[in-house]
């Protein structure tokens, strides 16, 4: 069961990483609904390609950590570091789930933008799933 959960999580991370790489190389699909906006429609921030590339690399490393944690891949680190990594991934996505109390997360204040709608129905629940599932794997392994 742990292998299947790890594969599902790793697949999500890889797909998200590929999407971020698409944006790094100039792709525009989906970009308008993935950046928080204020009520006037202005972006809260404008991520550049270096930050977007860093996120893609992070997501790929999260996928590899998941696959190493269950033994599908052999990692370069001792298993205890992989365990720490799983807890860190869980924590990162829990923080994303909670959000900034204004534009992002379950407690966001602004809820009437395209991003806010997607955040409510897609991004925040996905963050909760990734937090809980990585946490469960970290405890079980």
Topology diagram in text:
Elements: H1 2-24, H2 49-69, H3 79-98, H4 114-140
How would you explain this protein's 3D organization?
α1 (2-24) runs antiparallel to α2 and α2 (49-69) crosses α3 (79-98). This protein has one domain (2-140). The chain is globular. It contains four helices and no strands. The protein is an all-alpha fold.
CA radius of gyration? 16 Å
Largest sheet: none
Q: Please, how many helices?
A: 4
Overall pLDDT metric? 92
State the helicity in percent bands: 55-70%
H/E element string?
A: HHHH
Number of DSSP-assigned strands: 0
Distance between the termini: 12 Å
Low-confidence stretches: none
User: What's the quaternary structure here?
Assistant: single chain
Helix-strand makeup class:
mainly alpha
Number of domain units: 1
Characterize the overall form. Answer: globular
DSSP strand content: under 5%
Task: Kindly summarize this structure in a few lines.
The protein is mostly helical and 141 residues long.
Search tags:
single chain; 4 helices; about 65% helix; about 0% strand; globular
